[in-house]
Structure formats: C-alpha cells, structure tokens
Amino acid sequence: xxxxxxxxxxxxxxxxxxxxxxxxxxxxxxxxxxxxxxxxxxxxxxxxxxxxxxxxxxxxxxxxxxxxxxxxxxxxxxxxxxxxxxxxxxxxxxxxxxxxxxxxxxxxxxxxxxxxxxxxxxxxxxxxxxxxxxxxxxxxxxxxxxxxxxxxxxxxxxxxxxxxxxxxxxxxxxxxxxxxxxxxxxxxxxxxxxxxxxxxxxxxxxxxxxxxxxxxxxxxxxxxxxxxxxxxxxxxxxxxxxxxxxxxxxxxxxxxxxxxxxxxxxxxxxxxxxxxxxxxxxxxxxxxxxxxxxxxxxxxxxxxxxxxxxxxxxxxxxxxxxxxxxxxxxxxxxxxxxxxxxxxxxxxxxxxxxxxxxxxxxxxxxxxxxxxxxxxxxxxxxx
Length: 383
What we know:
Elements: E1 6-12, H1 20-27, E2 35-40, H2 45-58, E3 64-68, H3 74-84, E4 89-92, E5 97-99, H4 103-113, E6 119-123, E7 131-134, H5 135-144, H6 146-153, E8 161-163, H7 164-174, H8 186-194, E9 197-202, E10 206-209, H9 216-221, H10 225-234, H11 252-267, H12 278-296, H13 301-313, H14 320-332, H15 352-358, E11 359-364, E12 367-372, E13 375-379
Helix pairs in contact: 5-6, 8-11, 12-13, 12-14
C-alpha cells in the first residue's frame, strides 16, 4: 500500500552497491508516511541485479515505487521523477544523502501549520519553528549576496518540498521542473518566482553525506571524470558552462547565479545581472575558487584571470572590501595558486610612443637612462 502524503523522489544510476545508507535513513524515519519513488537510470546488468536485491530487502519495510528509466542524462532522469510523482507533496533526495530521522516529522508539522503554502524550505538560519516568508524578499537578498539563498535552503540540500498541484502547474507552464546546468536549485527558483510566499524553518534534514558516492558538483570544481561524463551526456562545454552568470567560470557558487538569471529569463521575472551586488559577488566567487583549489590541489589560473578582468571592467580594483579579502588570502595561503588575481598586461594607448619621446625612464645593466625633451641622462649606482 502506498501513502498519499509524500513522495521521496530518488534518482540513481549504477550506484546500487553504495546507496544502502540512504535506504537505512528512510527506514529510520520517525514518521513513515511517505513513499520511496525510485527512478533507476542504471545501464549495467550487474547493477540491475543489485537493485532487485536491495529493493527486495526493503520492500516489506518501505512503501517503494520502482521505475526503470535508462538511457537518460542525469537532469532528464531527475525531471522524470517529478513527472511520475502523484503524492500530495514531493521532494528529490539524491543518492548520496543520509536523511535526519525526523525529516518527515518536521515537514509534516509544516504542512499542518501552513496547508495553503506550496513551497517548503529547510534553512540553516532563522527561527526553529515554521513561518511564512515573502519570496521577493529572499530573491532580493540573493541578488545582494548568494549566501542568503544558500542559507535559506541548505538544510534541504538547495531543494524544495513542492505541493502536487503547484508542481503540476509548473510542468504545464514550463514543460518540466529541471531546466538548467546545476539542477539542484531549479525547483526553488521556479517556486519563488511563481509564488508570493514560502514556508521555512531553521532545521537541517540532512544528517550526513555518503562520500563513497561521487558528487557531480564537486567533480566539476576540478574537471574530474564524473563531471566530464556529465558534460558529455548533456552536450555541454566546460569553458562556456555558465553564460548567464556575470563571469563565465565553471564553479558551483557561480552556477547558482547562472541558474538564477536563466530561470528569471524563463519565467519573465524582473531579475538580471545588473542588479547584483558586484562586490559581494566577486568576494564570494574568489573565496569559492580558493577553497576548492585548495581542497583538490588543482590550478586553474584562467579562472582568476577572468575574475580579475571583471574587476577591472567594473572599476572595482580599489574596493576596500575586495582588497581586504584578497590580502587575507594572500597572507594566509602560501600555495601559489591562492594568491591575488593574475596581473593584467599593461595596456598602451596610441599616444604612448609620443609621450615616451618626451619623457621616459629605462634601466639597462643597472644604469638608469632618463630621456627628457630629446636629451638623455644616465645615472650609475654608487659603488
């Protein structure tokens, strides 16, 4: 028997030998009023055998709906899960997540308090009780600093619980739920741009992450094999991955900006790159680049050069906040790839040769040569 309350959409591919910890977290839920909607995109024969074994082990303990897809890319498989869900609410759980035992219980309390709300988020800041908030306020804060958006839904892994009627409305209106490169934040942005209010609570339903299961996002930070396969499956170009972001750099932090503006364009929502706080954007992106390059020990100097060019284009090279941030990391991180952005080559105007004919200073073999109005003077260092 299935329940009508909640579908946990569970997409996976060729990971059945690794994901039992997630099944255990479903089994430990203090409120069992949910279905486990498995969307299996595996394409290996041995994985199908492992899938049937694990499902058989938990079939009498969990309400399992199993759907075999196959041949889909990751985002299409995720989206298939949303189209298959028919419970009152749905939430997508990635196969590396281990849920907190009270996840369903806390969510159920939110739906009872606000039955009229269509979007529910778990935050890592704010009040520890369910409250209604304005969507436009969160989007405005997001334009000022992406960390506001991150904090608002990191407790549910940058995803939202959606009511069935609202989810189906989004599918009718936009053809699908998952649209853009990141995938993770799509339903949150779509929801906020199509409803005036959402419900939120300061609580994390994520107990831990199974690090045996590879992460596409983290692999993307250093151009790993998982991400290379992801790009190939989705016909994407790593060097032109985020065309809607202020700077086209392949980075998770930047991807959240890209999907924000791409979703706004899709929805016709009044939100674009010109409205962001550029100083906060630069600092957030710079810190993100440094942290992941430090973690994976991979140098991508071209990313720093792109960021440095953006700083110059917006005349922000003398911003006190930016320079404090750069100075901190220059002083505290000694590895060469964590230094300040690469210096931009000196630009010369068409008047440079004429100016140098009037006045120039050059140094050769320790001797300084000064040219002034056609006269040359040389100065040798004292011995």
